[in-house]
Design brief:
The complex is a heterodimer of chains A (99) and B (96). Chain A has 99 residues and is α+β, with helices and mostly antiparallel strands. Chain A has one domain: BMC (bacterial microcompartment) domain (Alpha-Beta Plaits). Chain A is 41% helix and 33% strand. Chain A contains 3 helices and 4 strands; from the N terminus they run βαββαβα. Chain A has a 4-stranded antiparallel beta sheet with strand order 2-3-1-4, covered by helices on one side. With 96 residues, chain B is α+β, with helices and mostly antiparallel strands. Chain B is built from 3 helices and 4 strands. The chains are: A alpha+beta (99), B alpha+beta (96). At the A-B interface, helix 1, strand 2 and strand 3 of A face strand 1, strand 4 and helix 3 of B. Chain A: It comes from Sporomusa termitida. Chain A: It is found in: Bacterial microcompartment. Chain A: This is Propanediol utilization protein PduA.
Chain lengths: 99, 96
């Protein structure tokens, strides 16, 4: 899913893949958000990113972070209501729909 | 297998226990091994798919078996995964 910074961005980072997938599943199910990308930066840290309107993203991140923490280690959760479009360029680098 | 199959995950420290988990899961229940993903620092996860009851039984058996070999870091069963989650799980797929 392409992202140009036009919507709010929600981030949940976990140590390990399983809590990250759980966060992604819960976020997409509990609020009207779409999965934009996922990225493994090494050291076992995996980040999932969703986009949508700010209230939906806020609620999604809250639920997703709690779900991830329940089965593993959640290292960071954040909502960016209106990131600058350059941030969108970084996020789109890891576009989940691209190859 | 159907697209909306249940998914079962086990994440361990090290390849040895993850292979044991994969083996135990496939032997204990009628599930299909999708593949594995290594996110560094020794954290490796395997994912299986199948009927929700089978996946649940497989993960339980997998945790027990892998726990004897090495530490199990996390595990999970997603009964009916959201369509977007399949895009992440696709990274696990291994070529036979």
């Amino acid at each position: 899913m392409e992202y140009f910074g036009e919507e709010a961005l929600g981030l949940v980072e976990t140590r390990g893949m399983v809590p990250a997938i759980q966060a992604a599943d819960v976020m997409c199910k509990t609020a009207d958000v779409v999965l934009v990308s996922y990225e493994n930066v090494g050291s076992g840290l995996v980040t999932v990113m969703v986009k949508g309107d700010v209230a939906a993203v806020r609620s999604a991140v809250e639920k997703g972070a709690a779900a991830a923490a329940a089965i593993g280690e959640m290292t960071a959760a954040h909502v960016m209501p209106r990131p600058v479009s350059r941030v969108g360029k970084i996020v789109s680098k890891h576009d989940i729909d691209a190859g | 297998m159907e697209r909306n199959d249940a998914l079962g995950f086990i994440e361990t420290y090290g390849l040895v226990s993850v292979l044991e988990a994969a083996d135990a899961m496939c032997k204990a229940a009628d599930v299909e091994l999708v593949g594995y993903e290594n996110v560094a620092s020794g954290l490796i996860s395997v994912v299986v798919r199948g009927d929700v009851g089978a996946v649940q039984a497989a993960v339980e058996a997998g945790i027990k078996a892998a726990g004897k070999v090495g530490p199990v870091y996390s595990s999970n069963v997603i009964a009916r995964p959201h369509a977007d989650v399949q895009k992440i799980v696709a990274k696990y797929v291994i070529d036979w």
